[in-house]
Amino acid sequence: MADFGFNEHHQNEVINYMRFARSKRALRLKTIDSCFQDLKDSRLIEETYTVDEVSDMLDGLQVLVRGEVEMELINTAHTNVLLLRQLFSQAEKFYLRLQTDISELENRELLEQVAEFEKTDFKPNSKVHQESSKPKLAPLNEGGVSELLQKEISRLQEDNDRLKARLRTLESQAMSALDDKSKAERALKSLQKSQGDHQEITNLEGTVAAMQADFEKTLNANVASQNDLQDSLVSAKHDLLRVQEQLSLAEKELEKKFQQTAAYRNMKEILTKKNEHIKDLRKRLQRYESDE
């Protein structure tokens, strides 16, 4: 069985999607078969036909088959968009920006691996764990750039929370020191009024002066710590903005690369031909209405 490097959970998700795609494909093929059968039952009732009659029947069959195939291709594209929407929504909850390589969609080796994987009838090597409830999608691409980005964001957020907590602690200590100073000053004034002992007042003044000096030293240290914390916060914000800018540039580069792929040019050519076909049909319809 082809190995895509997925864990068991993600491989089961791929199996579920391929089963869904297989069922849709089988239904569309039955519809196409019914188009041919309807032609046989309704038109092939005579032994001989003219060239014009055969050409008319083939043209009608071509329109039906083309419509069915086009409808299936459009539905498949829209279904893939809905699948990508689920994955991107999950990733954005973790502040991730997933990237896709459109050129890999035409990688013949990988396509052959997918075809070989489908031939195994979706029987994984290990026993499939049947979950009781529908699991939520986990963020894709847990390795490489996305994993580093997620770790960096988590680290910056943790540093930010830690610095904020440290800042609150220093502010609390400063308020406590101011409160102690106020209490000492009130005690000194009360002692000066109630006692005339110059020596005790001198000692108390010395104690207050020492407390004031210690308070000023602590306050200066707190101010320096607050400045360091603020600088760290600013640096963390700058790092986060730089990472976001790099991701934005990578996203623009991916979009530019997609517009240069063969798939994009083919789709654009198909849309152009489709528009021309619609214009031609409108002209024919106007001509028929004029004849009536």
UniProtKB/TrEMBL annotation:
Region (Disordered): 122-141
Biased amino acid composition, Basic and acidic residues: 122-134
Keywords on record: Coiled coil, Cytoplasm
InterPro entries according to UniProt: LZTFL1 (IPR026157)
Coiled-coil parts of chain: 146-194, 233-291
A GO BP entry: negative regulation of protein localization to cilium
Localisation: Cytoplasm
GO cellular component, one term: cytoplasm
Main location: cytoplasm
Function: Regulates ciliary localization of the BBSome complex. Together with the BBSome complex, controls SMO ciliary trafficking and contributes to the sonic hedgehog (SHH) pathway regulation. May play a role in neurite outgrowth. May have tumor suppressor function.
Subunit details: Self-associates. Interacts with BBS9; the interaction mediates the association of LZTL1 with the BBsome complex and regulates BBSome ciliary trafficking.
Entry similarity comment: Belongs to the LZTFL1 family.
Protein name per UniProt: Leucine zipper transcription factor-like protein 1
